[in-house]
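Translate sequence into structure tokens.
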Amino acid sequence: MGYGVFIHRSDSIYDDSPAERYQFPRQYLSRVQACIGSWIIYYEPRKVTDTRGYFAVAKVARVVPDLSAPGMQIALIEPGSYLEFSNPVPFSGPDGLVERGVLNAAGRISGRAQSAVRPISQSDFERILGLGLGDTDTLLPRSGEPSDPNGFHEDQTPFDLEVERDRVGLMMTRIVRDRVFRRVVLRAYGERCAISGLKLINGGGRAEVEAAHIRPVEANGPDIVTNGIALSGTAHWMFDRGLISLADDLEILVSRQVNDVEGVRAFVNKSGHAYSPSRALDRPDPRFLSWHRAHCFKG
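Result follows.
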């Protein structure tokens, strides 16, 4: 059992869904099997336009044959383990390569760097993870908000709970995952409320907007940007209570149970559609929007 790097392109020809499954040719089977029960880092090649570099971490649960594609295998990702980096990590940084295991004896990049699946040393894994998550201290609970990832109090206080501080253990706690999720979603939306279009910054320089899960964590919703949407406090309250929802084309739907329909209409974007992330790949996934309409929205 060891760490690994899985190459995933945003324009991949494979049937991948990074938070759920990774399809790969049988030639990589032994390498993927070595990662079962352990963690892998997703990497997007430099040749991809607007590449994210090393962009997420996940845990491999098991490997099964892909019955729909002869010769292909599927690595199933452990539910709830996938986490996108708040700071995507480039292949090469100010101090050189972050994945030093791809260097050969002469110190040059070897052909290993082209492998779609490759093992990675613990030191390289921890280096990339540290860069991807950023300053660990900013992810710890703060005074007055032990479980509120969207609170605005910024005074760092000692950690009251005996939580292991290694990054692998830390990133699995709900508080930390919510904080990382918030960073990823707010970056995608430019810190702007998708429903009202407003971008408000408080006196402390913090965005007055929250990262909402479209399909809640309690309903097995993953911590991925396509299951998130940036909302102001009022919009978040209405969204969670099913008073507003979104169509697949991001049209804003208003429930018939709203007692002030005209007021809500005046509050939402004049276009009648939610503000969309600039990257198409960050847009809400129709699967999650459909779930919200079916289970939350009070049409």
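Note: The radius of gyration is 21 Å.
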